[in-house]
Write a structure and sequence with these properties.
three-stranded antiparallel beta sheet; mainly beta; Porin; about 325 residues; twelve-stranded antiparallel barrel; globular
């Protein structure tokens, strides 16, 4: 199962992140009224459109279920995440992103004497990155943007959490325990009728301690959408719109190391396809995607396979105070 969407964390970093996020969202809501937004991809945020002097506040509800383990434990995994995202565009080419991962995990498995439920909750790691536009054009209802981005994943999540049955499995603690660089590229092509988004990224996970290192992750995503309502746009103004489409996600995880030795029951490759839709108004957008597995190739033995994941999101776009221009 891919790591995004399952976390556990210590309580103190979680409280600090919740307070910081609440203050930022409150300030953004006071900054100004919402404005029209482009259609965003749902299952990845690197291609999220962010205009100059605007902020995008996005909230997810993200339940998932995994099972399929062939072994004596017969594990079943439920995950419910509510990852918030804040993005801000101080200039027409530069945007900053911050994302955290509050969630609740439940894992049922066989133990001596019956079945037990193991749980974990809190915050996972915090992702901060900046995106810069390398090339763009916008003319006669057609736009194209090519961006590069780079940032860091901060260890606000837990990576070595245990309970009465021992250390929790990797899918319940995706925190790396280290400061990890993150980089990639993204592109968007859009007309009044269709939109395509793409990204590719890699996160390098440094050693968390002398005896533990989470494997790195590479991924690439594609999204394609078509406007279905209204069929014909009005000559003037902006009306509510319904778009339908499909997204696709490919992940590759390298193996983790425990005690300096490679854990051969970690890592692998996954490919998902996600039918999706979203509804946009001049003030907000909302939508959903159903992520379904096409290929799941976890290495070793005992890894869970995802059955399904649902992404439901809501965006609010606000005007931010203009930054002083020194260029």
């Amino acid at each position: 199962m891919n790591r995004p969407g399952s976390c556990s964390a210590s309580a103190r970093p979680g409280r600090r992140l919740r307070v910081a996020l609440a203050l930022f969202v409150w300030a953004a809501m006071l900054a100004g009224p919402a404005r029209k937004a482009w259609a965003p991809p749902i299952t990845f945020v690197t291609a999220l459109p962010v205009a100059q002097d605007q902020a995008v506040v996005r909230f997810y509800a993200d339940p998932a279920h995994a099972s399929g383990e062939q072994g004596p434990l017969d594990r079943e995994f439920w995950n419910l995440a509510f990852p918030p995202l804040v993005a801000w565009g101080p200039t027409s080419r530069l945007a900053f992103f911050a994302s955290a991962m509050p969630l609740d995990d439940r894992l049922t498995q066989n133990v001596a004497g019956g079945r037990a439920t193991r749980s974990a909750g809190g915050f996972g790691d915090t992702l901060l990155f900046a995106r810069y536009t390398l090339y763009s054009f916008d003319d006669l209802g057609e736009a194209f943007v090519l961006d590069a981005f780079a940032g860091v994943s901060l260890p606000s999540g837990w990576y070595n959490k245990s309970d009465a049955y021992g250390r929790l499995p990797p899918e319940m603690q995706p925190g790396s325990g280290s400061v990890d660089p993150y980089w990639g590229a993204t592109a968007m092509w859009k007309t009044q009728q269709v939109e395509f988004d793409w990204d590719a990224s890699y996160q390098y996970n440094a050693p968390a301690s002398a005896g533990y290192r989470l494997g790195g992750q590479a991924r690439t995503d594609v999204a394609a959408y078509y406007r279905v309502v209204p069929w014909t746009l009005p000559d003037l103004g902006f009306n509510n719109q319904l778009w339908a489409g499909v997204e696709s996600n490919v992940y590759w995880d390298s193996r983790e190391k425990i005690g300096g030795a490679i854990n051969r029951n970690t890592g692998g490759a996954w490919w998902y396809v996600d039918p999706a839709f979203y509804y946009g108004t001049p003030f907000w957008t909302t939508g959903a995607a159903l992520q379904l597995p096409v290929i799941q190739n976890p290495r070793g033995h005992g890894q869970l396979k995802m059955d399904w994941r649902v992404y439901v999101y809501w965006d609010y776009i606000v005007v931010m105070p203009a930054m002083p221009r020194f260029w």
